[in-house]
Write a structure and sequence with these properties.
Elements lengths: L1 H25 L6 H16 L10 H27 L3 H6 L1
C-alpha cells in the first residue's frame, strides 16, 4: 500500500530530475570551455559598465562624494543665512 501511495511522488521527482537535466544542458556555464570563457568575458564587460545609482566605485570615492555634498549644503546654508541677515541694499540704507 505504501508503494502505491508513493508512486505519484516518484513520478514527480523523475519529472523534476529530467527538467533539471534539460535546464543544465542549456545553461551556458555548463557548455564547452570556449563558450564558457566567452560567456564569462561578455558578462564581465556588461557588469563593468553598469554602476547602480547611488553607489560609488570605491569607499574613497564615496567619502569624496559625501564631502562634496556636505560642502554644497554648507555653502547653501551660508548663502541662506547671509540673505536672511542682509535682505537687500535698499533696506540697509534706510535703517
Amino acid at each position: 500500500m505504501t508503494i502505491v501511495a508513493a508512486c505519484p511522488f516518484v513520478i514527480l521527482i523523475l519529472f523534476m530530475c529530467v527538467s533539471l537535466y534539460k535546464g543544465l544542458s542549456q545553461d551556458p556555464m555548463f557548455l564547452d570551455e570556449n563558450e564558457k570563457r566567452s560567456f564569462a568575458l561578455r558578462l564581465a564587460r556588461e557588469r563593468r559598465h553598469q554602476v547602480p545609482p547611488g553607489s560609488a566605485r570605491s569607499p574613497w570615492e564615496a567619502r569624496e562624494d559625501e564631502r562634496l555634498e556636505r560642502k554644497a549644503e554648507k555653502s547653501a546654508q551660508k548663502t541662506a543665512t547671509k540673505t536672511a541677515t542682509n535682505p537687500g541694499s535698499g533696506d540697509q540704507a534706510g535703517s
